[in-house]
Design goal:
By secondary structure, the chain is an alpha/beta fold. The protein is built from 11 helices and 8 strands.
Length: 249
């Protein structure tokens, strides 16, 4: 039985005061929902967020982590550091980490392996660029990203995996894949996993859609049978918008 999830990736936004204010407003307005709700604030506000949400059902995730447990990696954060402050969910492979910071499939496979070994939940992001979509290579790109970074895992490890398909051309651009495009890709992803592992595992994996989800399009996107929720960017920075998206699932 796969879980429906609405996760907010705050990226490099919100200082401590703004974080506390947003979480307070979000907690007060949070609707009753069967979906798991997650927020991913900046590293410096993870403790603040955990404290602010101590009596809430909202979970807190980190936006990234290093594959090493410790060492000479200036500016990096390890899994142990996250777990020590109560953070056991991490986003890995976001398109901005890939494009701006050069993270490739080999590096991401190491990060995923470390997170799984530490019993963390991974929200693994992947998706095609605009040119790859235009040239009809989007399926092969997505298949390659999955296989290279994820298919070295054993079946049991997939209990800790949430997938997030994010067409890069629809992130922060105002463009959104149509609900039909989202469903087509999500079904392809599930079928690819089924062929690599088995149908039961594939059916149990939650696959989120990420790419300019807003209150006015969330319900239609979430209604598709292979879309299990969303990884929300800009709309998660406004409590009212995020709440409406949660209501749509």
């Amino acid at each position: 039985m796969r879980t429906q999830i609405v996760a907010g990736n705050w990226k490099m936004n919100k200082n401590q005061d703004e974080t506390e204010n947003l979480l307070s407003e979000l907690s007060a307005k949070l609707p009753d929902s069967h979906a798991t709700v997650i927020v991913a604030p900046t590293f410096v506000n993870l403790v603040t967020s955990k404290n602010a949400l101590h009596s809430s059902t909202i979970k807190v995730a980190a936006q990234n982590m290093h594959f090493a447990e410790n060492g000479a990696y200036t500016g990096e954060i390890s899994s142990d550091m996250l777990l020590n402050i109560g953070i056991d969910i991490v986003i890995l492979g976001h398109s901005e980490r890939r494009s701006l910071f050069g993270e490739d499939d080999e590096l991401l496979a190491k990060k995923v392996k470390t997170a799984i070994e530490k019993q963390m939940t991974v929200i693994f992001c992947f998706g095609e660029e605009l040119e790859e979509r235009k040239s009809d290579n989007h399926f092969s790109v997505v298949e390659s990203q999955l296989k290279n970074a994820m298919f070295g895992l054993d079946e049991k490890s997939w209990q800790h995996i949430v997938l997030a398909y994010e067409p890069v051309w629809a992130i922060g651009t105002g463009e959104t894949a149509t609900p039909e495009q989202a469903q087509e890709m999500h079904a392809f992803i599930r079928n690819t996993i089924s062929e690599a592992y088995n149908p039961t595992l594939a059916n149990d994996v939650s696959i989120l859609y990420g790419g300019s989800v807003k209150p006015n399009n969330a319900a239609e996107i979430f209604s598709k049978p292979d879309v299990d929720g969303g990884l929300i960017g800009g709309a998660s920075l406004k409590a009212d918008d995020f709440v409406e998206i949660i209501k749509a699932i």
